[in-house]
Amino acid sequence: MSFVKLCLCGNKVEFEQRMSFPNYCPFCGRDLVPFQTYRSDDPQLEELLKRTAAPAEPVPVETPAPAPAPAGKLKCSITLSNGKVITIPDGGCIIGRTETGAEELAEYSSVSRQHLRIFVRRNIGVLIEDLSTYGTLVNGQRIPKNEPQVVQDGARITLCNVEAVLNAKEDNG
């Protein structure tokens, strides 16, 4: 018998012994420790695989539920308080002083080299995950480190002490 952990990236990670799972997803590098372990013959597994892009226990940052999945792709960017814009690639990215947005964030030494990860998922919208040393706020609320959170268009994101706004618009072209 084998066992499975379902990662947020949509992949299942299989392993032989219940407590011998890999610590990190081989596809996206996410920490697998907090995710539930399933037997590979579990009848619920197929239904869960259909929903793997969403966290098993989503903790939205905002009270309203995410908008329904758009027909086109979401084009995302982050506009900093100084007017500079960081464009998010379709597959998502890590934002920080040595990653995407390095030029725009170079003057802010308090922003971590790898501050936050952004995912754009068609069926749930935009997810952010704090990777930083000093923390990230969304709409004034600190988000837990290494736990992806659903965010909406127009969300105020604070990278340590740098204010920014998330722009997520549907692209039908």
Radius of gyration: 17 Å
Strands in their spatial order, largest beta sheet: 5-4-13-12-9-10
What does the average pLDDT come to? 80
Number of strands: 13
One letter per element, helices H and strands E, the order comes to EEEHEEEHEEEEEEE
Number of domains: 2
What about the largest sheet? 6 strands, antiparallel
Distance between the termini: 47 Å
Q: How are the secondary structure elements laid out?
A:
Elements: E1 3-6, E2 12-15, E3 37-39, H1 45-50, E4 73-80, E5 85-88, E6 93-95, H2 102-105, E7 116-121, E8 125-130, E9 136-138, E10 141-142, E11 149-151, E12 156-159, E13 162-171
Antiparallel strand pairs: 1-2, 1-3, 4-5, 4-13, 6-7, 7-8, 8-11, 9-10, 9-12, 12-13
Name the features.
Tumour Suppressor Smad4; 173 residues; 2 domains; 2 helices; mainly beta; single chain; 35% strand; four-stranded antiparallel sheet; six-stranded antiparallel sheet
Description:
The structure is a single chain. With 173 residues, this protein is mainly β. The chain has two domains: 3-50, no CATH class; 73-171, Sandwich (Tumour Suppressor Smad4), CATH 2.60.200.20. The protein contains two helices and 13 strands. The strands form three sheets. Strands 5-4-13-12-9-10 form a six-stranded antiparallel beta sheet, with no helix packed on it. It has a four-stranded antiparallel beta sheet with strand order 6-7-8-11, with no helix packed on it. Strand 9 (136-138) and strand 10 (141-142) form a beta hairpin. It is elongated and about 55 Å long. The protein starts with a strand and ends with a strand. The model is unreliable at 53-70 (pLDDT under 50).
